[in-house]
Amino acid sequence: MTKPVLSIQNLSVDYVTDDGPVRAIDNVSLDVMPGEILGVAGESGSGKTTLAKAIMRILQPPAVISGGRVLFEDKDLLQLDEEGLRRLRWTRMSMVFQSAMDALNPVISIGEQIVDTMKVHTDFNSSQARDRAVHLLEMVGIPGDRIDSHAHQLSGGMRQRVGIALALCLEPSLVILDEPTTALDVVVEKEILGEIKELQNKLGFSVMFITHDLERMLQVSDRVAVFYAARLAEIGPAKGLRDNPQHPYTQGLLKAFPSIAPGARTPESIPGSPPSLLSPPSGCRFHPRCSQVVDACSQTRPIRTDLGPGHAAECHLLSQETGAAT
Amino acid sequence: MSQVQGSGVGLWIAAIKRDKKARIGAIILGVFLFIAIFGPWLVEDPDALVGVPLQPPSSAHWLGTTGQGQDVLAQVVVGTRVSLTIGFCVGIGVVLIGALVGITAGYLGGRVDAFLSLLFNVFLVIPGLPLAIVIAAYLPSGPFTLAVVLIVTGWAWNARVLRAQTLTQRKRDFVAAALVAGESKFRIVTREILPTMTSLLVAQVIGSTVYAIGAQVGLEYLGLGDVSAFTWGTNLYWAQNDSALLTGAWWTFVPTGLCVALVAFGLTMLNSGFDEITNPRLQLERAWRKYLTRNKTEATHSTPVVITND
């Protein structure tokens, strides 16, 4: 069995407030396999971005990582010091932010920014780095002669592509995409996602892809992790999750998306709204909104139940079923 | 929630209570304000010749007597009122004028900006204290003159800083949104842009007040104030006039000097607590730092790892 590139084990993240720590990631475990695209879905505030930034250890105050291990290429990222993290960041793992297009320096040309990034971490000389920058830009669909353009001369979609080129420039083994296309229109989004998928095929890096667009995610990802209120509700192969979702929340989420297929059912929403993490519901956090609630739901936290290769969910219904089966 | 919420005076008081340095500053300033308001009624007439000149501190005269045989304590206490009044008036005055000119220039831009920028740039290159000395020498001496002199020579720097700050704010989306919502220019400046500068304005008032007190004492020490009035500056003027240093009569100038230093110290301390009010992020960081200290973890650039067993 292949070893995962990234293995998150029982990770917890707290935001410290005056009233004590608030848990924003609660005991989450998941693996990212080599060459895999893992989608991370969930409502706003469910912990998707917090998870991504916790992996990179770039969460700003008042965040602290309060437990668990993050194993990346045999190193525990939670044990590394600043220098160790600096070496790893961007060379082995990189990130495209939702606002990557705004992260470009307005007074330095995009080529120079890519060259700078490469020169920090490699011993490329300027002309080698520049050649590679041209190559990278062409890879993400920007003509190489735009290398001396400045950010304001490019459209939002192009700037986002520059962000992706920057993330790929050191050939990392893991690229975290934090809603990379949310600020773009659907046409550009589709193009960019297609390019990412193509690049990923060609270069073989792993991707952790965060979005709240479940439909899009199911198209792009190999596996999908669904977050609800700081916990992992369900994780499984994209196809299996779409055709046969196990967790009631995943089921509800899938029903809530409209389909453009003719004769499709009308979308149904999940009643209620996500809980406040300041005072989360007892037991299973989804139970106040769940349509299939049983007694245990409000009592105890459901344990993770394995449902097949790479497929698991935290739900009392499932643990009872498997409990009955064995 | 112990986090600062709401608005107005309560917010500032809460900020002072929370911050140790601000508390110290507030206490020091409170004592001086009390002296400034009630002091003159609590001590004897500072002008009265009450004893033998240049007596060191004793039970009869706690801070000794001056070269004229007046009570030093009475002079320091009575001097507090005028010195602080001028200090705060100048501090607030220069920031008001600076804000008016700076924000107007920054927001309106164009010719108005060119003219106003020229104006404060001219004032900036004129050396402040020498100009103050020249003006003070020509105008009739007195506290009011001093205040005017210090305001005229002190406003330009504030205007420049606030113009720059306005320039960074006026292109922000929230200003564009206010414009689209139909708000008037005046309202945009006063309700949208000005509140983003609150902590800067407060810091400027405090800094300018410290400057004003120092400059005013300096001018009076040089004899450019009203030497028959009782202020900290004239106290020092008379101490010098009576050769206090030569005769070793330290009690005639040390108390006044200490008062100037203490007020400046108190104001600076107070300022440190105010940053948090307009920067809510700093409030969050405070809780975070406390939490890290409690768990013996260093605040690092990367997200710190704090494993607790609860």
Description:
The complex is a heterodimer of chains A (326) and B (310). Chain A has helices at 48-56, 82-88, 110-121, 126-139, 156-168, 186-203, 214-220, 238-243, 248-255, 316-325; strands at 6-17, 20-32, 37-42, 63-72, 75-76, 93-96, 174-178, 206-210, 223-228, 231-237, 304-308, 311-314. With 326 residues, chain A is α/β, with parallel strands linked by helices. Chain A has a domain at 6-92 and 172-258 and 267-278: 3-Layer(aba) Sandwich (Rossmann fold), CATH 3.40.50.300. Chain A is globular. Chain B has 2 domains: 9-278, MetI-like fold (Orthogonal Bundle); 281-310, no CATH class. Chain B has 13 helices and no strands. Chain B is flat and about 70 Å long. Residues 1-5 of chain B have low confidence and may be disordered. Classes of the chains: A alpha/beta (326), B mainly alpha (310). The A-B interface holds A 13-14, 16-19, 21, 53-54, 57-67, 78, 82, 85 and B 1-3, 281, 283-285, 287-289, 291-292, 297, 299-308. Chain A: This is ABC transporter ATP-binding protein. Chain A: GO terms for molecular function: ATP binding; ATP hydrolysis activity. Chain A: Keywords: ATP-binding, Nucleotide-binding, Transport.
Q: Ranges of chain B with pLDDT <50 over ≥5 residues?
A: 1-5
Major sheet description of chain A: 8 strands, mixed
Provide the CATH architecture of the domain at 6-92 and 172-258 and 267-278 in chain A: 3-Layer(aba) Sandwich
Number of domains of chain B: 2
- Percent of residues in helices of chain A comes to 25-40%
The CATH topology of the largest domain in chain B corresponds to MetI-like fold
